[in-house]
UniProtKB/TrEMBL annotation:
Organism field: Soboliphyme baturini
Catalytic activity line of the entry: O-phospho-L-seryl-tRNA(Sec) + selenophosphate + H2O = L-selenocysteinyl-tRNA(Sec) + 2 phosphate
MF (Gene Ontology): O-phosphoseryl-tRNA(Sec) selenium transferase activity; tRNA binding
UniProt name for this protein: O-phosphoseryl-tRNA(Sec) selenium transferase
Single Gene Ontology BP annotation: selenocysteine incorporation
UniProtKB keywords: Protein biosynthesis, Pyridoxal phosphate, RNA-binding, Selenium, Transferase, tRNA-binding
Subunit structure: Homotetramer formed by a catalytic dimer and a non-catalytic dimer serving as a binding platform that orients tRNASec for catalysis. Each tetramer binds the CCA ends of two tRNAs which point to the active sites of the catalytic dimer.
Similarity comment text for this entry: Belongs to the SepSecS family.
C-alpha cells in the first residue's frame, strides 16, 4: 500500500491508527530496501511475516501472476493442478528450505535461467530472477563470513548427492589431470560409484 492507501485508511479508522500502521509498514519496507541495496545477510533475522510479504511481492512480478494479462509462449509458467501449485518451484526451493518455510505457496513456477544459461535473467519472471540473484548474493556472503574471503562469486542450484560429488571430482580432475584413482573412505550406496564413473567419462 502507498501513502494514498493510508489516507483512505485514515478516513475509516482515524488518523492515529493510520500513523501507527503506516510506520509499521515503513519499518518492514526499510528492511527490504536494506537487503536489496546491500545484498548481504541481515544483521538480525527476519520474522515470518516479513519473509512472506517480500516473497509474495516478488511473486507478483512474474508474468504468470499478472492480473487480466497472460502470455501463451512456450516458456509461460502455468499450474493447473492445485497439488502442484502448492509446491514451490525452481531455485526458490533452496531459499525456502533455508528460511524454514517449505509449505508456503507463492506461484513461482517460471524457474530460472534462459536458453541454457542458468545464470541469465528470465525476462518473463522478474520476481524469480530477483530471488535467484539475491540467493546467490546471500550464499556468497555466507561463504565469505565462514572464512573464505577470496571467494568472489557463486550460484545456487538444486543438486542431488551424486551430482554434487561428481562436480567436486571434476574440479579435482582439473587440479590433478594425471590422477587415475579415487580414494573413497566408505561406499554404502551406488551413487558413490556412479559419480566416480561419470566424472571419469566426462
Amino acid at each position: 500500500m502507498d501513502s494514498s492507501s493510508f489516507e483512505l485508511i485514515a478516513n475509516i479508522v482515524g488518523q492515529s491508527y493510520r500513523s501507527r500502521s503506516e510506520n509499521a509498514m515503513k519499518t518492514r519496507e526499510k528492511e527490504i530496501n536494506v537487503l536489496l541495496r546491500h545484498r548481504k545477510l541481515p544483521d538480525h533475522g527476519w520474522d515470518d511475516a516479513l519473509i512472506e510479504l517480500f516473497l509474495h511481492n516478488l511473486s507478483m512480478m512474474d508474468c504468470n501472476n499478472f492480473q487480466r494479462a497472460f502470455g501463451v509462449g512456450e516458456r509461460e509458467g502455468r499450474c493447473y493442478s492445485g497439488i502442484v501449485r502448492r509446491r514451490n518451484f525452481g531455485l526458490p526451493d533452496a531459499m525456502f528450505i533455508v528460511l524454514n518455510t517449505p509449505n508456503l505457496h507463492f506461484s513461482l513456477c517460471h524457474g530460472i535461467g534462459r536458453s541454457g544459461a542458468i545464470t541469465s535473467l528470465q525476462p518473463k519472471a522478474t520476481g524469480s530472477s530477483l530471488i535467484n540473484r539475491l540467493t546467490n548474493s546471500l550464499a556468497l556472503h555466507a561463504i565469505q563470513l565462514s572464512g573464505v574471503k577470496d571467494c568472489k562469486s557463486c550460484f545456487v542450484i538444486p543438486c542431488a548427492t551424486g551430482m554434487a560429488m561428481m562436480l567436486c571430482l571434476l574440479h579435482f580432475r582439473k587440479k590433478r589431470p594425471n590422477a587415475q584413482t579415487v580414494i573413497w573412505s566408505r561406499i554404502d550406496q551406488k551413487t558413490c560409484i556412479k559419480c566416480i564413473l561419470a566424472a571419469g567419462d566426462c
